[in-house]
Design goal:
Layout lengths: L1 H76 L11 E2 L8 H8 L6 E8 L2 E11 L5 E7 L2 H15 L6 E5 L7 H12 L4 E7 L8 E6 L4 H71 L6 H33 L7 E3 L1 H14 L7 E4 L6 E3 L1 H18 L7 E7 L2 E8 L6 H4 L12 H5 L6 H11 L3 E7 L3 E9 L2
Parallel strand pairs: 9-11
Antiparallel strand pairs: 1-4, 2-3, 3-4, 5-7, 6-7, 8-10, 11-12, 12-14, 13-14
Helix pairs in contact: 1-3, 1-5, 5-6, 6-11, 7-8, 8-11
Amino acid sequence: MRAMHETSELLDFRRAFIWLLCGMLLPSVALVAFGVVAVANERAAVERRLAEDYDARLRVLQRAVLERLDQAAFAVSEGRRDPLVAFVAPLQGSPPALAEAAQRAAVLPIGGHLLVGTETQGERTAYALVRVAAPEGGERTLVAPLDLAALAAEVPKLAQQRFPRERADFRLIPPREPVAALAALRRFVAEAGNNGTIVARASLPSPLEGFALAAELPGDDPAAAVAFRNRTLYILLLVLLYVGIGVGFGLTLREISRAYKLSRLKTDFVANISHELRTPLTSVRLFAETLREGRAESPQEVRECVEMLSSEAERLSKLVEKLLDWSRLESGRRMLELRKTEVPQLLDEIAVAYRAQQLPASYQSEVEPGLPPLDVDRDAMAQVVLNLLHNAVKYTGPDKRIRLRARKAGKGVAIEVEDNGPGVRPQDRKRIFERFYRGDDLLSRSTEGTGLGLAISKKIVEAHGGRIELETKVGEGSTFRILLPVA
């Protein structure tokens, strides 16, 4: 039955563990996927926002560039020089690329102009065809090739005039070169050496077909910077989330494990208590039946039965009192009556109580002279020391050597109980002060006990502001040390 009960508890523990794992991992996986999508969408949103912001500026700059070309054409018609005009010459024998434009320019009024663009062998050129009066009378058309390099140099100035506080750079981008390996390599090298990021483009109309205006932000890609910042923040928050989940998972797992172990300890405790109660109750019933049936004929036999009944009843009383002590300590209902007490006086009271219990062993007492007084509850502290002495008697062999010492320890006083018993195994040392815990070795199992004595002792010592320690070597004995502050 006990094995089946432990198996059921283990299955419940594993089931709770699996549900806890699923409840934590599934939402976190969904959160990771959502975060990845959100970071990707954020980058796209930043790029769209920048493009929308700079498209309006590029349209303004586009009109400014066309107005600047018109100014260069007016300068030609008025006979003035202009930086955008490479040279001026009469249009004679219209080239095939300008034939149609020359016909349209011929019908313009004097002072009128026409801006045209041509492409010859992959090279684009812009011209201003201006209608002026001829010196010999009549009219003629002048052709003025436009210097596109000078125009490209003026684009940033035009942008500065219209957007004085703008941190972006505006420039004129020429048409792409014919797709060839060398041209592609040249563009790749040029773009790789550029530290800016183009966030918006706007194509130019005639006579600059193929050319485009570009808004370029200096430094790294702003969308990438925003995406990197958001990604870093997201990863940091995700790490914090997983740390929190891990800590919570660990604490929950520890509590589940502790609850499982406590359940097993309680099961062992019930089994031990049942055994401890069954033995004296069986003796009480046996001797009571002996007296009732009149089997004890002589007065001496009757006296022996009565003494055994009294002994077993006292044993039951101590067991119940130990359970009640633990219950009071756990609920905080046990109040300590602290009084200033001299250490030799406390040890004398312990010696009187020890002799009254008629245990099958004595102990040697050693008290360091000049010890300061302690603020203790005498009965409670006597209970602690007597419990340690009882354990020393129970767990040592036939040659019992038990010492009770009191000495100065730092700013406090140490009361030590030393024995020559088998010692405490390493796996039991950390848990020996836990409630209901008893070692799994043969000696512990064959010795009566509830697993509450040391737990009660630790609670009482800590309530005095002290602590209890264990020094032990397997096969050589143990020393339980009570460290108490002075009054």
